[in-house]
Structure formats: structure tokens, C-alpha cells
Amino acid sequence: MNAKVLLISDSDDLKTLQAALKVSPNFVSRLASLKELTPDYASKAKADLVVLSVASAGSLPSAVDRIKAEKVLNELPIFAVLNPKDLVQSSFQMPAGVYDVFTRPLRVEECAARLVMAYKKFHRISEKNIIASGDLEIDVSRYEVRIGGDKVDLTYTEYQLLKFLATHPGQVFDRDALLNKVWGYEYFGGARTVDVHVRRLRSKIEIKKRAFIETVRNIGYKFIQPDSD
């Protein structure tokens, strides 16, 4: 497992958590402030999870809105870091988009464990680190793909494209969104590169009369959910 965690804080309180994530084989982490959260930074981070630390509960809604304003981050689960007293205030309401809360002082081992569980839940990864859809299996720990038990040779980009689509079944992504999510930057040469990679990917995985990727006309692509066979 290699979950990418974007840590956002305007203070130094997440440095201990970042240090713990750096020595774990399960995570890759980046630490930034809200001011550094430009569209370019957000796309290059290629995050799977967000940990947001704010000074007080009153500043949480605006900080969450700032994160959600970034196209590549607006669907990711957010862990908010708060003081315990914030949670018992009668006026406190958790903003939409916050998945869970870490309270200070942070217990980094517990935080890491909860991040692992969230990653597996949101990215449909089993305890064996397998994403499965019918006879398609993506082994995220070995970077391997199998169809009916037979290994399929994919390039790194083809693998990342398949993995991303498979972890969001039924959700339509336009070509620009896929460029940001998979390639990690704005591709100025045009979105045709997505079409080329999808065509090559289909030729390798759709070999047993089972379609996995659907073209949504004039929009982009989606991974077909198993019950839509």
C-alpha cells in the first residue's frame, strides 16, 4: 500500500505526524500551508487523503471550502485536527466533507492506523491489498494486474489509469480530470493522450468479452461497476 497523504497546516503541529508517515511503508506524505495550496501544487500532490489542522473550530469551514475548491481534492476524505474542547461546544457543526477528526495531542500511531482504514475503504482495497471487479484483480502491493488469474503487462501509466478508474466505479471523469489525477499536471499537448492510453489499456484487459471501461460521449470515461455487466 502506498497512500498519498496531503498534510495541511499553518503551524508546525503536523510535523510529528509527517515524520511518522515518512518511516511507514504505507504512506507518502506532503506538508503544506493553505497559502501554498495552489492548483499546481494540489495536482502534483496526487493525494488520496487530506489531514487538515486548524487553530480553532471556527476556522474549519473556510479551510474545508478552500480545499474543496481544488478540483483534484474536492472528493477526498478530510481528517480535521481539532482541540477536544472544540467538539463539545454547542455551536460547533462539522462541515460537510470532513470524514473524521483527530484530536490534540495527536497519537500518531492511532492516526496512521485510521488513515490506513480510510484509504482501504475509499479505494476499495481488500485486506489482501486487492482491488477486484469480476475476473479483474489489481494487486496494489505488487503493482500487478490479472485477468482470470493471468498476469497482464501494463506500463506504469496504464496501471495508474486503471487503478484510478477502478477505485471510482461508475464515476465519470473528463479527460482534463484524468490528466490531473493520473499524470499529475496539466498536459498542454492536448487531452488526446488520455484517449491513446485508454485504447491501449482496453486492448490489454478487455480480452475475454468483458468491458471494464466505458466511453461517455462528449465527456470522458468511467469504470463499469460489476452489477452493470
What would you note in describing this structure?
With 229 residues, this protein is of the alpha/beta class. The chain has eight helices and twelve strands. The chain folds into two domains: 120 residues, Rossmann fold, CATH 3.40.50; 99 residues, Arc Repressor Mutant, subunit A (Orthogonal Bundle), CATH 1.10.10. The chain has a five-stranded parallel sheet with strand order 2-1-3-4-5, sandwiched between helices. The longest helix has 15 residues.
Labels describing this entry:
elongated, 229 residues, four-stranded antiparallel beta sheet, 12 strands, alpha/beta, 2 domains, five-stranded parallel beta sheet, Rossmann fold, Arc Repressor Mutant, subunit A
Task: Write the CATH fold name of the largest domain.
Answer: Rossmann fold
- CATH-assigned homologous superfamily of the largest domain: Response regulator
Strand content: 15-25%
Mean pLDDT: 89
How many domains? The number is: 2
Low-confidence stretches: none
Task: Bin the helical content.
Answer: 25-40%
